[in-house]
Amino acid sequence: MNNLKTVILLGSLTGLLILIGGYFGGRSGVVIAFVFAMVLNFGSYWFSDKIVLKMYKAREVSEADSPELYYLVRDLALRAGLPNAFATGRNENHAAVAVTEGILGLLNRDELEGVLSHELTHIKNKDILISSIAATVAGAIMMLASMARWAAIFGVGRDDDEEGGGIFGLILMAILAPIAATIIQMAISRSREYLADEGGARISGKPSGLANALEKLSQASKAVPMKASPSTAHLFIVKPFTGRSIANLFSTHPPVEKRVERLRAMRQV
């Protein structure tokens, strides 16, 4: 169901891009914005693992440093059918799972196993690729909307009597299109989180372990919010900082309560 939802949401993003591009710049406007957004996101997709790991000063953990963690990741990767022990990265061969020192002290073995399985499922499901596609289309919409704002400022646009509303249509499009694109992009992220929860529970065979981990991490993030960038919030298993967005429309994660409810409804394997 969530895979179907992702397809529908990506289709909605594409439709929005065609609509706004056709209104403002015709086919050429759509192509230019899409290509430009694709170039910008290509670098992020290709080097995302290195950029994020460096941002958070991550270091590679050897088997000697943390034998239990190393064994857990290797064992779960084999269960998941992944080629290596190494959730960021462009594919299964170029990905990394990162854990904080805090999480190692907070979670027990079953809970940590659930978290690692969740992250490995993101890799298995090609979620970095999916989020990159969504970001590319959304980025193109943002660029077209920005062009529309400048056109409205300088009075460039269709006459008011033309179909589309002229300058007022440009202003409306410039305001609403980016909001709609962001809402859809965040909805895609939430759908992938549900799928990663389900897949992680199946890999570990312990849905209650992941459910308990989510509850602990949610409480911990409220008590001690992590100094994380909003641009990388979607990479964490729960929101790393506090704060509620309007009706959760702009949240990268589903409510923890709903995630836990779904996991507890799954049968222990």
Fold topology:
Blueprint: H1 2-24, H2 26-55, H3 67-80, E1 88-91, E2 94-96, H4 101-106, H5 109-124, H6 127-153, H7 166-204, H8 207-223, H9 256-265
Antiparallel strand pairs: 1-2
Descriptive key words:
269 residues, mainly alpha, two-stranded antiparallel sheet, 9 helices, 2 strands
Tell me about this structure.
With 269 residues, this protein is mainly α. 68% of the residues lie in helices and 3% in strands. It has nine helices and two strands; from the N terminus they run αααββαααααα. A hairpin with a 2-residue loop joins β1 and β2. The longest helix is centred in the last third of the chain and has 39 residues, at 166-204. The two termini are 22 Å apart.
Q: Calculate Rg over CA atoms.
A: 21 Å
Q: Quaternary state, please?
A: single chain
SSE string:
HHHEEHHHHHH
Q: What is the 3D form?
A: elongated
Number of domains: 1
Structural class assignment: mainly alpha
For the largest beta sheet, what order do the strands appear in spatially? 1-2
Strand element count: 2
Poorly predicted residue ranges: 159-164
Span between N and C termini?
22 Å
Helix content: 55-70%
- Beta-sheet strand percentage? under 5%
Q: Largest sheet, described in full?
A: 2 strands, antiparallel
Count the helices. How many?
9
What is the compact description of this entry?
It contains nine helices and two strands, in the order αααββαααααα. The chain has 269 residues and is mainly α. The protein has one domain (2-265).
